[in-house]
Model the fold of this input.
Amino acid sequence: MLYLNTFFLKLISKRFINSIKSLSFFLILIIFLDITLKFIGFGLDKHWYDEWNIRYPSTYDMFSNQPLAMDHNKLGFRGPLLSNKIQKDKISIAFMGGSTGYAGNPPIPEMINSLLTKNDINNVVYNFSSNSSNHNQHIHRLIKFSEYPFDIVIFMVAIMSLFNICSMKLDQAIHIIIL
Done:
């Protein structure tokens, strides 16, 4: 019986070592192809290399979008410029999101605006989204622009933000979700 168990363990360990060898070979092959194919134009989309044209250092919330670049307003956000003078019957909405709220043509905040306008709801949606931002930055951004009157604040929770919330202590995560 002892001989059978030893033989079985040796067989399993040989299979395990062989599978590790083949997996490591494929991993090294993929890394090699990824590096070499980038030189001829394959791989990561080139627009990510221009991220420094979009990002801009921003006090209190680390970075924001570059002001007056592409379709950004003078504060660096897509959509209408912030205003303190809003009609009483107009709903003011602040939309906080990462790349999910920033990207798209039209971006999600514009779609919300169109849907509400189509249903005869007078509104303005301010898009505070920027690529690679998280809810910590969004909360700071909300505080940074707290002098503006917002009736509704929407936090667009993407999957990566959920991972950040899940890695916190439970009481911190609940506090952020309630905000």
Q: What stands out?
A: DSSP finds seven helices and five strands in the chain.
